[in-house]
Write a structure and sequence with these properties.
Layout (H helix, E strand, L loop, with lengths): L8 E2 L5 E4 L4 E5 L4 E5 L5 E5 L2 E5 L5 H22 L2 E8 L4 E5 L2 E5 L6 E3 L5 E7 L2 E6 L2 H14 L9 E4 L14
Antiparallel strand pairs: 1-6, 2-3, 3-4, 5-6, 7-12, 7-13, 8-9, 9-10, 11-12
């Protein structure tokens, strides 16, 4: 049996999980509401403050969908209660970020500033000119937007300049040896 799939998902106070006939799962919490379509074979039951995910058989497809569905549901529950944050750092002389309304403007060595608009449910924060925080309730969307911001100017291996995740180690390449 799947070690991840068989673990129950604890439901904090104020979280409601509902499923429709076409297996659309809706999770409501204090921060908002998330929806996810799950496979028809996988069933979700709610018993004494916990959500359990079950599968019909030990077929390979059912085993793989079991753990996936449980992980997606657990991420949704955590998202509507705590939310997700992805922090980025900007390294480089003259490289900076600025918040203009809800959009973020990046000055990272191009001839023009790069403007990034947040999708629905995502907020940007700029606590310092070289730091960016991406916040939201959907883990996948927060991670995708953070990856798109990082892709504007990936950290380069010689000087380490660019946009990187907080705590990310950049593998540096030693330049040519001088005489």
């Amino acid at each position: 049996m799947s070690r991840i799939g068989k673990k129950p998902i604890p439901l904090p106070a104020g979280v409601q999980i509902t499923t429709t006939e076409d297996n659309l799962v809706t999770v409501k919490g204090s921060l908002g509401q998330l929806e996810q379509q799950i496979p028809q074979e996988i069933k979700i039951s709610i018993e004494d403050g916990q959500a359990l995910v079950t599968r019909p058989s030990d077929a390979k497809e059912h085993r793989s969908l079991h753990g996936l569905t449980r992980s997606l549901l657990a991420n949704m529950v955590e998202g509507v209660t705590k939310g997700y944050v992805r922090n980025l750092e900007i390294v480089g002389v003259g490289y900076r970020a600025a918040l203009q309304g809800k959009d973020i403007t990046l000055t990272v060595g191009y001839s023009h500033p790069v403007v990034i608009n947040p999708p629905k449910g995502v907020e940007f924060e700029v606590p310092a000119p070289n730091k960016i925080s991406v916040k939201g309730i959907d883990k996948q969307v927060v991670g995708q937007i953070a990856a798109e911001i990082r892709a504007v100017r990936k950290p380069e291996p010689y000087l380490g300049k660019g946009i990187k995740y907080e705590g990310e180690q950049i593998r540096r390449i030693v330049g040519k040896a001088g005489k």
